[in-house]
Amino acid sequence: MARTPGLSTALRKWQQLNLWPRLALAVTLGFLVLFGIFSLLSLQAVNDSTHRILQERLVIAQMAAQEIDRLVERGFYELEKATEFAAFDPRSPSLADEYHMLAHAYGRVGTLSLGVYFLDAQGRVVLSEPPGKLPPGTDLSSEANIRDVKETKSRTVSDPFLDSTSGKPAVALTVPILAPDGTLLSMLSGLIDVTSGEITGPLMQARDIGHTGHTELVDRRGLIVASTDSGGFLRPGEHLPFYLSMFRTAGAGVENVPYMPWHAAGGTEQYGYHVMAFAPVPSAGWGLSVGGTDWETFAPVTSLRNTLLLAGALSLTFLWAVTLIGARLLVRPVRALTGAAQQMASGDLDQRIRVGEGAEIGILAESLETMRVQLKASLEQARRWGEELEGKVVERTKELATRNRQLAAVTAVATAANEIGDQEEMLSRCLRVVLENTQMDAASIRLLNGRDGQLTVASALGDFTGFPCRSQPVGLNACPCGHVASQGLPLYLGTEERQSFQPLCRAPRARVLAILPLKSPKGVLGVLSLSRAHGDPPAPEERETLDALCNQIAIAIENARLLGELSRVEAQHELDRMKAEFISAVSHELRTPLGFIRGYATTLLREDIVVDATTRRDFLQIIDEESSKLQRMIDDLLDASRLQAGRLPIDRSPFSFQELLDGVLHKVSPGLVEKGYTLVARCPETDADVLGDPVRIEQVLHNLVDNAARYSDPGSPVEIEATVQDQHLVVTVKDHGDGISANEVERVFEPFYRGANSRRRGVRGAGLGLAICRGIVEAHGGSLWVESR
Questions:
Q1: How far apart are CA 238 and CA 271, in angstroms?
Q2: Residue 217, CB half-sphere, CA atoms under 13 Å: how many?
Q3: Suppose 118 and one of 46, 127, 547, 768 were both cysteines; which one would form an S-S bond, judging by CB atoms 3.0 to 4.6 Å apart?
């Protein structure tokens, strides 16, 4: 490679310099480079700190925004939940259920709520809670959010406004109530107090980031909904351009933006810059911003940068000066030593080395003199050391190979514990790993039963010929395995040791045994038992591997038990949830028939009302129908209870399916034909004899036909088809209704589950019919399923 003239000249001049100028230049250049590196690292640390501060502020904004979003979603949830328990039909003669649900929703929303309104499809007030909040008939159709609901038929959040009755800043949450045909039936609207503690609480918590910290909740126009500075409602936000920019990008961010206050704030910082973090509130279309002045935000970073640069400059300057002085003092004796070294390099080992210096330089001179005298001896010693080092390297290599095998075995056991959910299969995989990494023929894991103190085989691999205890539990004092479980210490027995060890092992005497405890922090979980037909007990290196494997197997067993406990706890939580749903569903479904019965019975008992015979008969007919409904509900609840307990009575006997189907059609046809439905039945040409409970099978068919009619439009057919396939009777009940979504196909068989079609069509019921049908069919050894297009 050719060198440039300037570089060659510089190299020649450098080579011509003596030791001291070279050392001074090298030290100076090195410290300059070190100072540059230190400065870059300091700036990198400052930049990292700045980034972390900005990210922390963004996280604070996002957490506060999530809390506001949760409060808005809670308001929507309570309004939508109320529509599940009342029809909210403005044309209904009685609005008792609607008034009850308005009061319930108002109470559930809590301190957030300023009122709840029930509006008709045109936007006029039907009911309000608290009573008299708005008089019935008040027209709200001109409100923008009401118009949006009427046009889109979806829930909306209004622009902030001052509530005329309370004088408080508020927003209105409105949800539509749709009729079965999809038209707008009515609306529920709830007023949310944006000055309540639940709204301002997250804002106040988020602003605690410094003396200049402040928080604003703004709508999509950049107007203040709520702020930590009072009095700013519906005024432009203090960082309006930033807010509008973030709304356009529809995301979260943090920037250093100009500060344009809407209030008269003290201090000169009010027209400076603020570091603001913005996070959207999706459910309301708002945004939440948290921030403070840039000088306060970056004050720790600025102080850190100045401290690092000043301390680095002073430290490096001091070290540079000290290093130069020391180098100067070091050069003089080095020159003398250089001459002596040149003599030794030339082969002159007779000339003694003398330097008039003490300390390290003097020691160096003495060392050179000693090296001259002992050169051959040193070379010989170096050769011997090389041989010893080679032997140690070989020994260390073998030790590392053993450790690697141990690590691979432990890793294999840990992988089996993490990948396999079944405990028996997991333990079998662990035993395979143990046998692969030892010289043993057979391995087994016995787990300790805490109730009776017995060791039971959980998994076994290999040759266990002649082991009478392989399939039997053993006590703690019955054999060596029990001894290890009770003492918690490993046991290694050769053929000679086994003859004198008590208690005796009933395995063949020729076999060598190794028994190790499986221990966890809670105590001994069981033992790992190993054996082989010949040889000696495991060597020390094998024992280390076995100890590591036992520790990992014990961890896997303990984790499996903890997962089992977790599953039981989750099952208990699910049972508690189902109990709560049961009470809610039963109380709601029993209220309607009981209300009819009580109302008509009270009317008949009143002495101040004269009821003619026709009206009395109509009242009694209604009471009888509602009593029948109530009886069916109670029967369904009893059947569901019996199914859950596994005690549903099934009285099997042969019967004709054709006759049973004719009886079902005879009972249900009049009612379905009166409603406009068409029944179509297709059966095998040859009558099929069925072994089962005819009463229960009739109950299933009646429920399926009734369910098909409920979820299809009048005038559509309900088809029943029976075929014989492989000595089984397959009965299909088909409707031409809305169908079921894929995620609800299996859930419709859950007790008390009522899908989206039930709420849309206004179908009443406890959600037990299909669950009982499946239980009855499965009790007969059959199956019940749903197919939907």
A1: 10
A2: 32
A3: 127
Closest of 179, 189, 182, 181 to residue 91, by C-alpha: 179
CA distance 485 to 475: 10
User: Shortest CA distance to 261 belongs to which of 269, 253, 252?
Assistant: 269
- Pairing, β 286-293 against β 214-218: antiparallel
DSSP state, residue 360: H
Helical pair 694-710 and 769-779, crossing angle rounded to 10 deg: 150
CB neighbours of 566 closer than 8 A, spacing ≥ 6? Answer: none
Query: 682 falls in which pLDDT band (50, 70, 90)?
Result: confident
Q: For residue 621, count other CB atoms closer than 10 A to its CB.
A: 11
Report which of 214, 224, 209 is spatially closest to residue 54, judged by C-alpha positions.
209
Strands, sheet with 728-734, edge to edge from the N-terminal-most edge strand: 678-682, 717-725, 728-734
Q: Which residues pair with 217 in a beta bridge?
A: 226, 288
| Residue found by looking up tokens 């001259």 in the block | 372
Q: What span, in angstroms and rounded, lies between the C-alpha atoms of 652 and 432?
A: 51
Using alpha carbons, select from 259, 252, 205 the residue that is nearest to residue 237: 259
- Write the pLDDT tens digit of every residue in 515-536: 888 887 778 878 888 878 777 7
Residue 718: phi and psi, rounded to 5, are -115, 115
Q: What global pTM score does this model have? A: 0.41
The tokens of 451 are what? 């109730």
Instruction: Write the single-letter amino acid at 59.
Output: V
* Chain segment 230-267, per-residue pLDDT in tens: 777 888 888 888 888 888 998 888 888 888 776 554 44
Angle at alpha carbon of residue 688, lines to 684 and 693, rounded to 5°: 130
Written as six digits, the tokens of 175 are: 């949800």
Give me the residues paired with residue 295 across strands.
none
- Collect contacts of 462-469 with beta carbons under 8 A, ≥24 apart: 462/431, 462/435, 463/533, 465/508, 466/507, 466/508, 466/511, 467/442, 467/506, 467/507, 468/506, 469/506, 469/507
User: Which residues, in sequence order, are CB contacts of 585 under 8 Å at separation 6+?
Assistant: 752, 766, 767
Distances (CA, A) of 295 to 59, 207, 242, 727: 20, 16, 19, 85
Torsion (CA) 757, 759, 764, 768 in degrees, nearest 10: 60
Could you report the per-residue pLDDT of 60-115, keeping only the tens digit for each? 888 988 998 998 988 888 888 888 888 888 888 888 888 888 888 888 776 778 88
Q: What's the burial of 34, exposed, middle or buried (CB within 10 Å: 0-12/13-18/19+)?
A: middle
Q: Are 764 and 630 in contact (CB under 8 A)?
A: no
CA distance 74 to 687: 58
Q: What would the DSSP string read from start to end of 627-691?
A: HHHHHHHHHHHHHHHHHHHT------EEEEHHHHHHHHHHHHHHHHHHTT-EEEEE--SSPPEEE
Which residue, among 752, 746, 741, has the nearest Cα to 786 in the 3D structure? 746
For the chain, how many residues are written?
789
**Residues 502, 517: Cα–Cα separation, whole Å:** 18
Cα–Cα distance for residue pair 171/188, rounded to 1 Å = 14
Helices in 223-298 by DSSP H: which ranges? 240-249, 294-297
- H helix count then E strand count, the chain: 19, 22
Specify whether the CB–CB gap between 64 and 203 falls below 8 A.
yes
Q: Which of 365, 374, 311 is nearest to 337 (CA)?
A: 365
Q: At what angle do helices 540-605 and 375-419 cross, to 10 degrees?
A: 30
- Tell me: cis bond preceding 93? Omega within 30 of 0 counts: no
Environment class of 22 (CB within 10 Å of its CB; exposed 0-12, middle 13-18, buried 19+):
middle
Q: Is the peptide bond before 136 cis (omega within 30 degrees of 0)?
A: no
